[in-house]
Write a structure and sequence with these properties.
Strand content: under 5%
Order of helices and strands: HHH
Radius of gyration: 30 Å
Helix content: over 70%
Oligomer: single chain
Amino acid sequence: MHNSGAMNLPVSAAAEIDGARRRRQMVSSVMTGLTAACAIATIALLIIILGYIAVRGVSSLSFQFLTDTPKPVGEGGGIGNAILGSFLMTTVASLIGL
């Protein structure tokens, strides 16, 4: 005969099952806490990196940088082609989506 629950088991077996259940719940709680701590640490590091890039890079932003075409390394240039290409790709994708 197969016992499907702890109701028909002797007291020691039922206590063993309860102990195993408590251990699983404890391990689950610890792992959930570790996962949350790692997620918070990762997000904090990402915010620090993006903040550093923003603070250092904001001085390079100008209308000329946003509208100029790329030039050889060391001669300045801009990201006008990239912005125009992104706009065109978004427009075409939106038209296809209609």
